Amino acid sequence: MELIEDALIEMKRGKAAGLDELTVEHVVHSHPVLIAILAKLFNMIMFAGYVPYGFRLSYTVPIPKVDTVSSKNAIDNYRAILISPILSKIFERCILEIQ
After folding, report:
1. Angle made by CA atoms 48, 4, 6, in degrees to the nearest 5
2. What is the CA radius of gyration of the chain?
3. Contact present, 3 and 97 (Cβ < 8 Å)
4. The whole model's pTM is what?
5. 10-residue block means of pLDDT along the chain (99 residues)?
6. φ/ψ of residue 11, rounded to 5
7. Mapping DSSP to helix (H, G, I), strand (E, B) and coil, where does residue 59 land?
């Protein structure tokens, strides 16, 4: 549970919601029992060795590198950001902290 709390403290606020429409703020301002439930879920994921399908879903948003009209037609002038579900981000931070 401490790993999850530490991961939530380190995460930036005000970021886009994933496909599940949850943000960091939803988890931070939820009931404290959610942390215990997430800890049990993450332990079961580790024990079973299976990541839920919803953790793998994300979407890509293209961001223009330069704001000129002529350069918006070139593919090289965009960078992609990946929007992942918040629960998978918390899980990933916990895994990285353990290693």
Report:
1. 145
2. 17
3. yes
4. 0.82
5. 93 91 94 96 95 92 74 77 93 91
6. -75, 145
7. strand
